[in-house]
Amino acid sequence: xxxxxxxxxxxxxxxxxxxxxxxxxxxxxxxxxxxxxxxxxxxxxxxxxxxxxxxxxxxxxxxxxxxxxxxxxxxxxxxxxxxxxxxxxxxxxxxxxxxxxxxxxxxxxxxxxxxxxxxxxxxxxxxxxxxxxxxxxxxxxxxxxxxxxxxxxxxxxxxxxxxxxxxxx
Length: 169
Description:
The structure is a single chain. The longest helix has 28 residues, at 140-167. Helix content is 57%, strand content 5%. It contains five helices and two strands. The protein starts with 20 loop residues before the first helix and ends with a helix. This is Metal-dependent hydrolase. Keywords: Hydrolase. GO terms for molecular function: hydrolase activity.
């Protein structure tokens, strides 16, 4: 991958409205980076918390979960019981999970996000959307941008955690 330019330098993502191209680029970059980092991480280190920071497993679960939640709010929907259960489970060690399986789940979630971006009418981007049980104010665009930047933030934290864990042997 090192010989390829970053996603934002590869041109437009087919079918995604122009105003949402930066969101698509950031999500695709996060997907590529998370998959590469998961491939480097031994399963035995997935739930380790070096220095007390969040585990790589948490970041991989959270990438999938938070993107799912932000897309739900952007559609103007409430979270489901399944989504709340997933939120509660984020970071709970589960030896049945592997770095590859968690990266695959995030890959699938990014694919769903791209489908939603393609289906988003730019006219709706400024429509208000409530976030959380309190219905805190946002917009369709605000939620989509936050989904992308939040994903990038957790990939950065995942990178540092994986580097520390793999450097430690």
